[in-house]
Design goal:
The structure is a single chain. Helix content is 42%, strand content 20%. By secondary structure, it is an alpha+beta fold. It has a 3-stranded antiparallel sheet. Strands 4-5-6 form a 3-stranded antiparallel sheet. Strand 5 and strand 6 (151-157) form a beta hairpin. Helix 3 packs parallel to helix 4 (160-179), helix 7 runs antiparallel to helix 9 and helix 8 (258-275) packs parallel to helix 9 (312-331). The radius of gyration is 38 Å and the shape is elongated. The two termini are 72 Å apart.
């Protein structure tokens, strides 16, 4: 069994027919962060140890005495004891000071106010993390950190809720301080901005019903996107769109002209108009006398296809064919 500093010191003194004398010189003080101090004497030497319990303090005193004996007798430094006393209750860390709110100060929901401020200014949603918890069970002190983009503020209080409010309040003050210098426009300009804001709010309901509202949010997983897109249309509409798209797939790609490509592109745009989508085309001549064409359907995320051809018309035809087949696949 591994030996503790107390047992090692006792064995050393027993060989000299002596016994270490331990004396409790501080009994904790009666506070919630009690500390005890023991003094040990032997061979004319004294040493003290401090701990959160009497046992811990006694072990620390014995350890200090062993070090004093080594130095006094000129021995080589002893290796660390294989059985350091287990500190059941570690010495308390520095307890942070808690700011007390004056009783006459009205309560402000800083967490809610910060959330509204971030939404109004298109900022990242505030994140709260507990970074510290100190003190005995009946007198805990909590530290909560609030993060908005790259800004961080910490609130300290006796409850998690209060610490969160304190962190949010500090973050509100910081953001308001940083943005206060931006409000330097004249009253006339400010009134104009308010008017534009009211107009935008009035038009939003009508604009939100336009076909572009069919776009899928980026939050949808790519693996589930085809399901979300297909669910925008009922079964009958899915079949109609699939049939129309299949009917315009070119059957003879050997004879390609700009007129044929333009006609195919017009038909494809008519079908896309039913879904509220549009197509964008880009042509890139290459260094090898070949043409590279990319086409993108305005979705979220976008559907993009590209192809290479000897002529611009050929590259467009190949890209259109791939794009039509991809859309059919999404609707199945």
């Amino acid at each position: 069994m591994d030996k503790t500093p107390v047992s090692i010191l006792h064995e050393i003194m027993a060989k000299n027919l002596a016994t270490p004398n331990y004396e409790l010189i501080h009994d904790g003080g009666g506070t919630h962060i009690n500390t005890f101090t023991y003094r040990v004497s032997c061979e004319g030497l004294t040493a003290t140890g401090v701990g959160r319990s009497k046992k811990d303090a006694k072990h620390e005193a014995a350890k200090a005495m062993l070090e004093a004996i080594v130095a006094h007798r000129g021995y080589l430094q002893l290796p660390a004891s294989p059985a350091q006393s287990s500190v059941r209750t570690p010495l308390p860390p520095t307890i942070p000071e808690v700011k007390r709110t004056p009783p006459d100060e009205p309560f402000i929901n800083a967490v809610g106010a910060l959330q509204d401020l971030c939404i109004e200014n298109n900022l990242q949603e505030p994140k709260y993390n507990q970074i510290n918890e100190v003190g005995p069970p009946h007198a805990k002190i909590f530290s909560i950190q609030c993060t908005v983009t790259t800004f961080k503020e910490t609130g300290i209080a006796r409850t998690k809720k209060q610490a969160k409010q304190e962190a949010a309040k500090k973050m509100l003050d910081k953001i308001n301080e940083l943005t206060s210098g931006l409000n330097t426009g004249t009253n006339k300009e400010s009134d104009e901005r308010k008017d534009y804001s009211q107009i935008a709010k009035a038009r939003y309901p009508a604009l939100s019903r336009l076909p572009t509202s069919r776009k899928i949010n980026l939050g949808v997983k790519i693996s589930e996107y085809h399901i979300q897109f297909k669910n925008l249309f009922d079964t009958e509409m899915q079949k109609e769109l699939t049939s129309k798209l299949a009917s315009i797939i070119p059957q003879n790609e050997n004879h390609i002209s700009e007129d044929i490509v333009e006609d195919l592109l017009d038909k494809f745009r008519e079908i896309l108009a039913i879904t509220g989508l549009d197509i964008t085309t880009s042509v890139f001549p290459s260094v090898t006398d070949m043409f590279v064409v990319t086409m993108r359907i305005d979705m979220s995320p976008s559907i993009v296809e590209f192809a290479i051809g000897d002529t611009k018309a050929a590259a467009q035809m190949y890209t259109l064919t791939k794009l039509i087949k991809t859309l059919i696949l999404l609707l199945k």
